[in-house]
Amino acid sequence: MNAISVLTLVLIAAQGAPRAPMAQPDSAVPLTFEEFYRAVATHHPVVRQARLLEAIAEGDLRQARGAFDPTLSAGWDRKSFGGTRYYDYLEAGLEIPTPLGVDIKLGYERTEGRYASPDRRTPGGGLLSAGVSIPIGQRLVTDERRNAVAQARALRDYAAGERAAQVNKFLLTAAKLYGDWYEAHRRRGLAGEAVALADFRLAAVRRRVQEGDAAAIDTIEARLELQRRQVQELEASVDYRNASVVIEGFLWDGDGAPVALDPRAVPSIVGLAVEPVDSARVASWLAVAERHHPTLRKAAAKVRQAEAERLFAVQQVWVPAAELTYAPLAAREEGVGALGDAVGASADAKWGGALKVPLLALKERGKYAAAAGKLEQQRLELALVRRDVGIAVTTAANDLSALDSLIRLQRQAAAQARLLRDGEQRKFENGESTLFLVNARERQVIDEELKRLALEAKYVAARAALAVAIGEPARFPDR
Hints:
Mean pLDDT: 78
Radius of gyration: 39 Å
Distance between the termini: 27 Å
Order of helices and strands: HEHHEEEEHHEHHEHEHH
């Protein structure tokens, strides 16, 4: 069975005939909560749209890395007038930036013409150059290009956290609606059971009245109870159909198309066994949340972004902007090997340098103060988020633990209510009780069962809330 057929849901019309208590058709295909949860986390358009945030951030990072692309350039400038070629300049170069801030430069230039500028003259075959540009002040540790890449990396991590946060919120909503669907399904089954019992009791009371063992007014009491339960069954059927339609909206296939409903499928929370929550599990969940929670990842990304900005700002305050360039020269006829021989010979090389020092550094100091303040702000935010995540995990674990205990107690309460109902039924059959008391006991059974179903539905949402609090919305916490 493929994932799509397993994940299809059902619209089952309400049946008026009596049915076995809580029985499912032999052809029913259970759709477990885990299957539904994982399918929504894989195929739903909202989740797939959230993934695009990372793709966009990855594109921004690639764009920032483009500042380190090697650049090939060429230029030609020529002037002729009155049959005389004044000058003919040809220049070509290759610049290779490196992540260390050192730029490698290769060049070729050729000059011809009667009136060419003397400082640009070259041998007849042109001039080769190969050199480097080295920052010796600012931009030695980092520069605009490296800072942009660091910022883009941080934004990519932030986008990953934002994607996970959106998926978290959406999957929690889906889990709660699945719990509502499960509760509606079980309520409908319980209402059908109640109608079947009331119908059976009405027939039994009529026989007893005919045999003279019961008063005729008991038939009115039995018919009234049957009608009351039929109304409840109708309401439960409508709620179930509406819940089915809502759940259907969460089912999509890998091609982005909605999944059709399968009339055989029924909700099921098989695999969500009630288990006690101990301190060791809570500690492991806290450790996972520390590594994977999307809000923590977003806050940590902002800290890294602020650190990169402060590092770039601090060197602008304390380090002057200085750069040194050096390129040995050789005639093209001598070949590239001659460039190595030209190293150290001042006549066969081009040197250059630049220095810039702001006297008051007002702009630089202001930028540093702003960057330092932002970094401290983001560090405090990270500390707050880490504390909030720990509280959220602990609270979700406490809720789950409380529901574990409540469900066990409620199951016992429902079983005891059934024992009281059965005992009252036997007393009624022996003429020691009234139909009114029997119906009252049965209503108590229904109430206790409804409470149990509501707790089971809350348990589904609580498991999802714990997964969200831990920060792994696409999987369940290891129980």
